[in-house]
TrEMBL record:
<dbReference type="InterPro" id="IPR022419">
    <property type="entry name" value="Porphobilin_deaminase_cofac_BS"/>
</dbReference>
<dbReference type="Pfam" id="PF01379">
    <property type="entry name" value="Porphobil_deam"/>
</dbReference>
<dbReference type="InterPro" id="IPR000860">
    <property type="entry name" value="HemC"/>
</dbReference>
<protein>
    <recommendedName>
        <fullName>Hydroxymethylbilane synthase</fullName>
        <ecNumber>2.5.1.61</ecNumber>
    </recommendedName>
</protein>
<feature type="domain" description="Porphobilinogen deaminase C-terminal">
    <location>
        <begin position="251"/>
        <end position="316"/>
    </location>
</feature>
<keyword id="KW-0808">Transferase</keyword>
<feature type="domain" description="Porphobilinogen deaminase N-terminal">
    <location>
        <begin position="188"/>
        <end position="235"/>
    </location>
</feature>
<dbReference type="InterPro" id="IPR036803">
    <property type="entry name" value="Porphobilinogen_deaminase_C_sf"/>
</dbReference>
<feature type="domain" description="Porphobilinogen deaminase N-terminal">
    <location>
        <begin position="1"/>
        <end position="165"/>
    </location>
</feature>
<dbReference type="InterPro" id="IPR022418">
    <property type="entry name" value="Porphobilinogen_deaminase_C"/>
</dbReference>
<comment type="similarity">
    <text>Belongs to the HMBS family.</text>
</comment>
<dbReference type="InterPro" id="IPR022417">
    <property type="entry name" value="Porphobilin_deaminase_N"/>
</dbReference>
<dbReference type="GO" id="GO:0004418">
    <property type="term" value="F:hydroxymethylbilane synthase activity"/>
</dbReference>
<comment type="function">
    <text>Tetrapolymerization of the monopyrrole PBG into the hydroxymethylbilane pre-uroporphyrinogen in several discrete steps.</text>
</comment>
<keyword id="KW-0627">Porphyrin biosynthesis</keyword>
<dbReference type="Pfam" id="PF03900">
    <property type="entry name" value="Porphobil_deamC"/>
</dbReference>
Amino acid sequence: MRLGTRRSRLAMVQSRWVAERLAVPVELVGITTAGDRTDVPIERIGATGVFTAALREALLCGEVDVVVHSYKDLPTAPMPGIVTAAVPERADPRDALVLRPGRVPAAGARVGTGSPRRACQVRQAYDVVVAPMRGNVDTRLRKLADGQVDALILALAGLNRLGLTAGNGDRPGETAGKGGDRLGLRAASIRAHGGLDRLGLGLSSAGVLPLEPAIMLPAPAQGALAVECRAGDLRAIDALAPLDHPPTRAAATAERSLLAALQAGCTAPVGALATPGEDGTLTLEAVLADRNVRAAHTGPIEDACRIGRDLAALLLDKEPSR
Ligand SMILES: NCc1[nH]cc(CCC(=O)O)c1CC(=O)O
């Protein structure tokens, strides 16, 4: 089977992770997407699916048989002719603050992010200045190392997959190669943050501080992958089925159905995280970040779609709070 992938290091790692887990021989085919070709801020490009449309086109025209997306990059509208054949087990869904070595983040620290969701939540929690930023993970880390900002906010899953944090277990990319020292993000180089304590962040080993969902709710489906193939391609559907992880699929479904319901009713940046319980339930927490409106809703895990829709209605009913 031919597996189409973006050429960024993160996309290649994710695609290889999927390829290695399939029982059939797989050839990786690199594809350049619109999102990779421009530095214009994502929210100004306007179109949804800047990273994913080219992959889906290659799939539909038969150039490739399988594509792997970061699930959070996928538009919520279903694509005719394409099925989500597998949603593998989710990596750590949290965002993390990545700190420059030798720099003491204190009040007024410059935090780089291009995401309104991250910007609103980090400003709400800490006395920091947000600097707009784009580019893939490698580019951003270089800007941090250059001193353009004091810290970044990035998805922990991406950092783990790129081998930039100490990870373990058999999750996507957590076994990937090193690279942290090249970018100056080694554990040893970040120590004794008086300023960090003042920010109430606590300490962490590697200059990578996970942000708890109580402070920063991730993007819907962050940390999860979506593996797609053509709807009629039974060979691919069969080959991909063993990779599916139903609890992850349910969580991503709840988070994305919330997002889809909100897109009809508001344009606020949305954070959302669903957590499966031990009793067959699913708890979805979400925030409209620019209004600081937050709520949670629990239901049977098989009703993932409805949990998302119900919580969207609840959020839209709530008054903004400061
Ligand atoms: N928006 C780009 C993007 N898409 C997926 C990830 C990280 C991996 C993931 O969330 O699955 C990232 C980078 C980031 O947000 O830090």
